Structure formats: C-alpha cells, structure tokens
Amino acid sequence: MTEQSALLLRKQLAELNKNPVEGFSAGLIDDDDIYKWEVVIIGPQDTLFEGGFFKAYLTFPYDYPLRPPKMKFITEIWHPNVAKNGDVCISILHEPGEDKFGYEKPEERWLPIHTVETIMISVISMLADPNSDSPANVDAAKEWRDDPNEPSLNSRF
C-alpha cells in the first residue's frame, strides 16, 4: 500500500500546487518525505482567528487513504477542538467505523474519499464553528460556551 499512498499524496500535492484553494497553503516539510506535510491556514474572516496565520503538520499513515492523517498545530491556538499540545480533534480525522462512545456516526468519521483539500476545508470550518460539546480543550470550550466573543480567546493564539 505504501507505493499507492505515496502516489496518491503526490497527485494531491500537484493538484494543490496547480490549483490552490483559498484559505490555506500546503507543501512538504521535507521534499524527500511525501508523508509529512506542512500547512498554513489563514484565519477565517469574521472569526476570532481572522488575520492570523496558523502553521500545522499533517502526518499521513503509510496505508493512507484507508486511515486518516494526524494533524497538529505548530502555531499556538486556543480552540475547543485543538488540544493544548496542538492535536486537532475533528470527526473526519478519527479512525473509520463505529465510535465506541456513540458521539459520531460512521459517515462523520474518516472515509477514504477525503483529500488534503477536504480535510483543510473541514478544519477551517471547525475554526469558525467549533464543536464545544466534544472538546479537546475543555477550558477553551468553557470560554467559548460562556461568551463566544470573549477577547481572551483572541489573545491566546
């Protein structure tokens, strides 16, 4: 599967280079490793993150697209769905199949049809509209629920 996943990732990278998608840029951390990507997200308009630039890493498993990549923000970000260590918690990056806790439907979790583009669009959407009911950062979720326009949220990224 390694050769097929590398080929698929090369194809997705070439497509993003040829046809960039608004809101983020993506490239390899090291030109010799197709499985480790760096992305920069532009903070979505009309959000507390507007005007910010947020660097993150996507690390793909060798059996991609059967399993999802891991995403970790390198730029500090205060968000209900981003753990304090930067790990992103979003349904489409969760392993495929049934959720043992019953919070997510299988179709909300990873599916092999997802691409870097669909992942990034979902993450940008998550920045604008967090899921504070299933937080990776409980403190940020509490602040978000208490006052989504709280200035302290903006000052923490």
Instruction: Give a short account of the largest sheet.
Output: 4 strands, antiparallel
β-strand amount: 5-15%
Q: Give start-end ranges of low-pLDDT stretches.
A: 153-157
Radius of gyration: 16 Å
Number of strands: 4
Number of domains: 1
Could you please say which CATH topology applies here?
A: Ubiquitin Conjugating Enzyme
One letter per element, helices H and strands E, the order comes to: HEEEEHHH
Q: Going across the major beta sheet, what is the strand order?
A: 1-2-3-4
Q: Please identify which CATH superfamily we are dealing with.
A: Ubiquitin Conjugating Enzyme
**CATH-defined architecture:** Roll
Instruction: Tell me, rounded to a whole number, the average pLDDT.
Output: 91
**Bulk shape:** globular
- How many angstroms does the end-to-end distance come to? 38 Å
Subunit organisation of the chains: single chain
Region (Disordered): 133-157
EC number: 2.3.2.23
Enzyme class: transferase
Keywords: ATP-binding, Nucleotide-binding, Transferase, Ubl conjugation pathway
Secondary structure layout:
Layout: H1 2-18, E1 24-28, E2 36-42, E3 53-59, E4 70-73, H2 116-128, H3 138-146, H4 151-155
Antiparallel strand pairs: 1-2, 2-3, 3-4
Catalytic activity: S-ubiquitinyl-[E1 ubiquitin-activating enzyme]-L-cysteine + [E2 ubiquitin-conjugating enzyme]-L-cysteine = [E1 ubiquitin-activating enzyme]-L-cysteine + S-ubiquitinyl-[E2 ubiquitin-conjugating enzyme]-L-cysteine
Domain UBC core: 4-157
Region (Disordered): 133-157
